[in-house]
């Protein structure tokens, strides 16, 4: 709950558009002590919003999170506005209307003739250019982006976006006001997706690519990224929650606004499901089916019953060889130490970025007995182990590997061959996109990690995530993914490549 401030950056706030976003902004502004003028093209919507906010404050009183007098003061600070003219005394007007460039341009052109010359104009756009929105204003320097996230009172971050002509003093005042409302401001330059929607491209689009290659089904990919990557929601759970009619247009918009940048390439899977109306939780069917709002998630395959586990042999050139040997010892495996495996041995490799097929071919391993395990993250830090077969892996060896690595009760997923398994691919993509956001100067490294952690709920900021994995390891995964797939999508950002080469933190900013 924001505390009232004696000297607010803005005392009288106009909010145009009283949907969920407008109401949320009105709530935190009133709680900070500002007078809030609510205006909507539908007059009835203003009264609905006022009643809804009054009920919200009463619920906070009932829960002991707000005093009755404070709630009454907040409600008294709401001022219905019948038309734009009634916003003339506002020193800040925030637009939260339909996401259409022409509508926003027309609104701000009207407001420019109504409010005082020193008043600030702000747009809550999530996907449109702030520069383009302000391009028809006589004084575009007074317009900035002020992008909140839904639900506004709970999502404690706001992107303060500078258009090409925005006065720095305007963004300073907006940042100060965000803090007074109890939110954390992060500064961004005017680019497609700003920070959060831009940085979020890697998680969803790479998961869709993995599914598109039939590496694993939706539920398995979700389990892996939650239990191994530490994400709160799997990518397909997230898509079902946000709904494809919201998510897919954003994916396509950012891709096209960046002139078909391969890192942001959308998926035909999502496009097809959108066309078929399989939108997600709100229609009862998405990547999962929903019964009474509960996802019907397929059960995990059982651990195979294997009468006698074969001995295990690790290639001399295996990545993470020491860690893999220790894990096998902890599991009580019989480990062969000869220069070559016996005819009975299960061969286990731990590729970084490469697929199991490439490892078997390059190291001349018998493919029928070769499986891979993802060892990018320390085994003690993950709740699930992930194994990958290659197209020639024998079913008995697959079963033996599954049984062996599940021996201590830890969950195991066995997937088809994939460069970088699942977690390696997704984490490397997230880190790489974040690094390139910094390379472009869209925001500072610190603001990027703050924005993503608060806005997307990732277990860590992407750059901090990259530091934990190690920039050199992220680079190895990306270089090898580019070799496996021949796709410029995986080319490393200069920010990542240079800091990895010099042993610097990915959060390091040049003087």
Plain-language structure description:
The protein is of the alpha/beta class. It folds into three domains: 179 residues, Rossmann fold (3-Layer(aba) Sandwich); 98 residues, N-(1-d-carboxylethyl)-l-norvaline Dehydrogenase, domain 2, CATH 1.10.1040.50; 104 residues, Rossmann fold (3-Layer(aba) Sandwich), CATH 3.40.50.720. It has 20 helices and 16 strands. The strands form three sheets. Strands 3-2-1-4-5-6-7-8 form an eight-stranded mixed β-sheet, sandwiched between helices. Strands 12-11-13-14-15-16 form a six-stranded mixed β-sheet, with helices on both faces. Helix 13 links the parallel strand 11 and strand 12. Helix 16 crosses helix 18, helix 16 crosses helix 19 and helix 18 crosses helix 19. The protein starts with 11 loop residues before the first strand and ends in a 9-residue tail after the last helix.
TL;DR of this structure?
The chain is α/β, with parallel strands linked by helices and 511 residues long.
- The name of the CATH superfamily of the largest domain reads NAD(P)-binding Rossmann-like Domain
Sheet with most strands: strand arrangement: 3-2-1-4-5-6-7-8
CATH C-level category of the largest domain: Alpha Beta
Report the helical percentage. Answer: 40-55%
Query: Main sheet?
Result: 8 strands, mixed
> Over the alpha carbons, how many angstroms does the gyration radius reach?
26 Å
- When the domains are counted, the total is 3
Relative strand content? 5-15%
Oligomer: single chain
> Which CATH architecture of the largest domain would you pick?
3-Layer(aba) Sandwich
Given the structure, what is the number of helices? 20
State the CATH topology of the largest domain: Rossmann fold
Distance between the termini: 37 Å
Mean pLDDT: 96
Overall number of strands: 16
Low-confidence sequence ranges? none
Given the helix and strand composition, which structural class is it?
alpha/beta
Rough outline:
elongated
């Amino acid at each position: 709950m924001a505390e009232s401030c004696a000297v607010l950056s803005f005392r009288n706030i106009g909010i145009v558009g009283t949907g969920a976003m407008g109401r949320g902004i009105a709530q935190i502004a009133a709680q900070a002590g500002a007078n809030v003028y609510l205006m909507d093209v539908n007059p009835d919507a203003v009264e609905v919003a006022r009643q809804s906010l009054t009920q919200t404050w009463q619920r906070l009183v009932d829960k002991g999170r707000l005093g009755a007098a404070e709630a009454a003061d907040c409600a008294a600070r709401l001022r219905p506005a019948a038309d734009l003219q009634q916003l003339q005394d506002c020193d800040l007007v925030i637009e939260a209307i339909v996401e259409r460039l022409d509508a926003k341009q027309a609104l701000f052109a009207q407001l420019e003739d109504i409010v005082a010359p020193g008043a600030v104009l702000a747009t809550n756009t999530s996907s449109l250019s702030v520069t383009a929105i302000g391009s028809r204003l006589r004084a575009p320097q007074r317009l900035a982006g002020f992008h909140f996230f839904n639900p506004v009172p709970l999502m404690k971050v706001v992107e303060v976006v500078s258009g090409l002509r925005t006065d720095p003093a305007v963004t300073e005042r907006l940042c100060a006001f965000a803090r007074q409302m109890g939110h954390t401001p992060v500064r961004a330059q005017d680019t497609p997706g700003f920070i959060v929607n831009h940085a979020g491209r890697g998680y969803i689009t790479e998961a869709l690519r993995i599914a598109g290659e039939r590496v694993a089904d939706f539920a398995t990919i979700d389990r892996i990224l939650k239990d191994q990557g530490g994400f709160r929601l799997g990518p397909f759970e997230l898509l079902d929650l946000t709904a494809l009619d919201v998510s897919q247009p954003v994916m396509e918009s950012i891709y096209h606004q960046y002139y078909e940048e391969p890192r942001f390439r959308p998926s035909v899977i999502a496009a097809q499901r959108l066309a078929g109306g399989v939108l997600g939780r709100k229609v009862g069917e998405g990547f999962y089916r929903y019964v009474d709002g509960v996802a019907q998630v397929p059960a995990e395959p059982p651990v195979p019953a294997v009468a006698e586990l074969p001995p295990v042999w690790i290639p001399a050139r295996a990545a993470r060889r020491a860690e893999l040997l220790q894990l096998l010892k902890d599991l009580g495996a019989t480990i062969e130490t000869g220069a070559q495996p016996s005819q009975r041995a299960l061969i286990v490799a731990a590729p970084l970025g490469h697929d199991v097929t490439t490892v078997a071919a390059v190291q001349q391993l018998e493919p029928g007995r070769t499986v891979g395990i993802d060892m990018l993250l320390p085994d003690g830090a993950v709740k699930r182990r992930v194994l990958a077969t290659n197209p020639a892996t024998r079913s008995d060896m697959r079963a033996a590997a599954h049984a062996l690595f599940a021996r201590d009760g830890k969950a195991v997923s066995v997937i088809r061959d994939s460069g970088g398994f699942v977690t390696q691919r997704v984490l490397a993509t997230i880190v790489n996109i974040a690094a390139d956001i910094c390379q472009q100067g869209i925001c500072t490294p610190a603001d990027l990690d703050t924005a993503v952690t608060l806005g997307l709920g990732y277990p860590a900021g992407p750059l901090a995530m990259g530091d934990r994995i190690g920039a050199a390891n992220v680079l190895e995964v990306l270089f090898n993914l580019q070799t496996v797939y021949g796709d410029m999508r995986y080319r490393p950002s200069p920010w990542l490549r240079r800091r990895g080469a010099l042993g610097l933190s990915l959060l390091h900013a040049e003087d």
